[in-house]
Amino acid sequence: MTFGKIDYINMLPFHIFLKKTSLPNSFKQSIAYKKNYPAKLNESLKKRRIDAAYISSIASTHKSFHTVNSGIVAKKAVKSVIVKKGVYAKDPHSATSNVLAKTLKIEGKVTIGDSALKLYLENPREYIDMGAAWYKKEHLPFVFARLSVNKHYRFFKKTADKFKKQKIFIPQYILEDYAQKRGISKIDIKEYLKLITYDIDAKAQAGLDRFLRAARLLNL
Q: What SS3 class is residue 190?
């Protein structure tokens, strides 16, 4: 089995969970070699180079994928998916966020991930938080990524269901490592993770359906 890893802070709880489970060490070790950004994982899953990954929600509708009701969900604000007003420019690491900017009619440079979080925390007035903008418009959560599977669906669904039920404690040494490497304080990392949930419940599914419908209407 192979799993694609998004190496962003928002997936840190899931990867800590995987490390603590009684899964084969070979599977755990392989995750490090399948690490990439969301748009690249979309391609890897389509070409069946990996069996499963949390991929961009806009790409998760591919007819060959089976999806699990687990994802990267922002209830309201998200801080790590932002736009700096100006001339529209895509973030090459994303697919969903670029489309979201179009559906929200926000012009500017799209940035996602830990670098976006750092920029936003340093100067929030310069950026539009697209999670907050979506919630203001639709009053629904936004699903940025969804667990999508090519093979071993039962295994990945069972794993995701177990993850959603657990409260994950992040050890201090891991927080310190991420804080140092990403240039974001431990406090800010912990506060940021409070904005994220991994359960695509009824409201999150409604938000996802509305977004996908809006994208189709714009032919995106």
A: helix
Rounded to an integer, the average pLDDT of 53-58 is: 92
The more confident residue out of 24 and 48 is 48
Cα separations (Å) of 55 from 44, 61, 94, 181? Answer: 10, 10, 10, 24
pLDDT at 38 over 80: no
What lies within 8 Å, CB to CB, of 51 at 6+ separation is 1, 2, 3, 149, 150, 151, 152, 156
Q: In the structure encoding, which two tokens stand for residue 123, read together?
A: 């100067």
Q: What percent of the chain has pLDDT over 90?
A: 68
Domain assignments of the chain as residue spans, ordered by start: 3-73+143-183
Q: What angle do CA 168, 199, 18 make, to 5 degrees?
A: 40
pLDDT for res 124: 95
User: What is the rounded average pLDDT of the residues 37-41?
Assistant: 80
Element (H or E) spanning 25, and its range? helix 25-33
Query: Considering all CA atoms of the chain, what is the largest pairwise distance in Å, rounded to the nearest integer?
Result: 49
Report the chain's terminal Cα–Cα distance, integer Å.
Answer: 32
Closest CA to 147 of 49, 1, 32, 14: 14
Q: Which residues contact 7 (CB under 8 A, 6 or more apart)?
A: 35, 36, 37
Residues 109, 15: Cα–Cα separation, whole Å? 30
